Amino acid sequence: MQRMLLLLILSFLLNRPSFAQTGRARILLAERESAVPFRWVSSPALPNSALLLPLRLPGCPETYYLQFDLGAAQSVLYREAFDDIAGKYPKSFEKKDALISVRDARLGAATLTLENMPTRSYAGSNPRWKKGAINIIGTAGADLLEGRTVLIDYPGGRLLLNADTTTLGSVERYSLVYAQGRILLPAQVEGERKLLIFDSGSSAFSLLTDAETAVRIATPGSVATQVTVRSWDHNMTANSFPTTATVRLAGRELPLGIVTYMEGATEQQVRSMKALGIGGMTGNRLFLKHRLLLDLQRRQFALLDPR
Questions:
Q1: Over 80: is that where the pLDDT of 164 sits?
Q2: Are both 117 and 185 inside the same structural domain?
Q3: Domain that residue 281 falls in
Q4: Does residue 56 sit in the same domain as residue 138?
Q5: pLDDT tens per residue across span 235-289
Q6: Cα 26 vs. chain centroid, distance in angstroms?
């Protein structure tokens, strides 16, 4: 999901979970490599605005979708969607005390079991029962990657869970920080060392930062393009500028193209973020021409060319 800087700081610095943590939720996967094709949700204002993973529930002919959102520490399922699914396919999952369990579901080629997954209300998530409908019934968060090696193949349009890294050849790896379900990538922004929170839910933004930084590295004389984005049940305004600035990450210079700030963060919150060396958030846009390897067991990452 696109998040304004305020929510980013509160969730990370104050360690506020986005959803109630049950301590019992688990995502079980076979250890073999499994490919999950993904699709994009796009609009004229926000191309590649969300990345969706196909989910098949047992006994259901329909394909549903989870938004792949590493800005969420924990996966969550949408209450309204599963209430409707229960009316049509009552044996496709189990529900107890607002927690949902699914046995032998299919995420692309991967067979997975979801145990005691939390739910939350999400307006508009009721499935549309018609052919070709894109029904998003939940969010796949960072716990999907917990203890696993995952390759996000952006040019190839697929996610490799439990990726077999022996097929990748010699790959230079770099350390990452994984804390409180957040992935932070060391980078240099205009020569300054920063940590960037990687949020695959903030798809449309190369760098989401504070207003001062955004204006400073924007192309001189450029005017912000304003777009209203939705983060859960809130609408916010994204202010994006063109920029020629680059980010050095995983040994590569990556052009930003655009830099963005969200309205709403206070000066104190921005100072707190900077004091920890956090330069902002990056999403899928920065990596669209590459493959991104995330090894959360070894706390390492790498950036690879397309195949």
A1: yes
A2: no
A3: 165-304
A4: yes
A5: 778 899 999 999 999 999 999 999 998 886 556 666 666 666 778 899 999 999 9
A6: 18
Stated pTM of the model: 0.89
- Domain for residue 150, yes or no? no
272, 183: one domain? yes
Indicate if 135 and 190 belong to the same structural domain: no
Residues 34 and 121 in one domain: yes
Dihedral sign, Cα of residue 184, residue 188, residue 194, residue 200:
negative
| H or E segment to which residue 215 belongs | helix 211-217
- How high is the pLDDT of residue 109? 95
Cα(23)–Cα(116) distance, rounded to whole angstroms?
9
Residue the block writes with tokens 């760098």: 207
Distance of CA 21 to the CA centre of its chain: 19
What does 261-300 look like in DSSP terms, one character per residue?
EETT--HHHHHHHHHTTEEEEE-GGGGTTSEEEEETTTTE
The answer on 110 and 207 residing in a single domain is no
Task: For residues 182 and 73, state if they share a domain.
Answer: no
- Which amino acid would we find at residue 18? S
Strands of the sheet containing 158-161, edge to edge, are: 34-37, 158-161, 149-153, 291-295, 300-304, 174-175
Q: Does residue 124 belong to any structural domain of this protein?
A: yes
What separation in angstroms does the CA of 231 have from each of 49, 52, 202, 295, 305?
12, 16, 10, 27, 31
Q: Report the number of distinct structural domains present in the chain.
A: 2
- Mark whether 223 and 256 lie in a shared domain: yes
CATH number of residue 244's parent domain: 2.40.70.10
pLDDT above 70 as % of the chain? 87
**Residue 184: closest CA among 249, 104, 115, 97:** 249
**Residue owning tokens 């939390």:** 118
Beta bridge partners of 278: 195
Scan for tokens 């409908």, then name that residue: 133
Q: Is the pLDDT at 228 greater than 90, yes or no?
A: no
